[in-house]
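User: I'm writing a tutorial on reading structure tokens. Could you give me a worked example: one chain, its sequence, then its tokens, then a sentence or two explaining what the tokens reveal?
Assistant: Sure. Here is the example chain.
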Amino acid sequence: MQYLIDTPPPSAQSGEATLSAERFNSVINFSNFLLHVLRILSGKDIPLDDKQLLAQFEHHILKTDEAIKKTQDFIFALLKCKYLFDQYIIKREFAQNEDKWSLKRLHFYNVKSQSYINTFDRDEEDGFEGTNRRILMLLSALHVSTPTLVYKHWLNGALYELFHMQEVNARHYLGRLERLARQFVYGRFLSVDKPAEYYEMIYQNRGYALAHVEQARVAERLEFGSIENNLIFNYLDYLLWCEGIENKTADDVIKQFEFSFRSSVEHFYPQHPMDGHIDLGQEHLHRFGNLCLISHSKNSRLSNFQPKAKRDHFKAAINNKNIDTLKLYSMIKSMDVSGEWGPDQIQEHEKNMLSVFDHDIKRGVQA
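And here are its predicted structure tokens:
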């Protein structure tokens, strides 16, 4: 086991050229990946924390009565999971002086010609539409919501589904990932009952009882200070992106949107207004309709600015087809129409965002 940890798989090579040549960055390290494989193989609720790696392997493989067979089974599972990981899990790609999320596979044209193309698109690379892009968007939404190397339950769920598929195709994989995301959001983070455990959702296929989000107890879980995980914001952004693409209403800002590590929950109307502006009042200030994700540095800089000043700050990025989050973009567009941002706009925006969740819940029931 220590040998596996100390000697992770080398980069793929062809002739004298290194195909992966630091072009891709993985979302996880090798020691934590080993725990994911062990959990999938055993079906047990094994902690996804590499500090427990050796202890878990001793307990489940090395010090059992069938140590040799279980070791062989694990090696086979490791090879299978590594192949699935390389083909169907996002990575950060560094190419042509830019970095971005990618979902690509290595394609061999002949012994002297190979390249990386989209996993689910024939002979295509990148692009802002199609099933490959949709899978990439959902995987990146899940990843940026849990950026640590340990306890990546979304990755465990994705690999578990891939491991047990007879044949991987884009439509089925996307459907499994969307179900997984719904379980996390509606079965755990917005649940009005006891939140489901990750193991129950992934390995025991526990669903969610939430019928719609427009209810008081759910609203309480969406208030500032009560939001358990940023996946609520990021999954909403994914749904807004899908809505724009499907309805063909997406402008270039929406089409080219990419998830990034935005961790600060921002009040669009500030908690502590400057220059004598009025306090909004607690009943509106902390509502979901007044909240969005931005980077920590921008939160520190813009926190006390008025909504119009914040909008002006983001205008340059929007003109460059860029925005921190799509929920923020929706808030800015709403203010452009009304000319202001106050209780009425907050309530209307929140109603619109909750209706996006409600539509997704109904869609999940029908899937």
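What the tokens reveal: The first helix runs from residue 2 to 6. The chain has 16 helices and nine strands.
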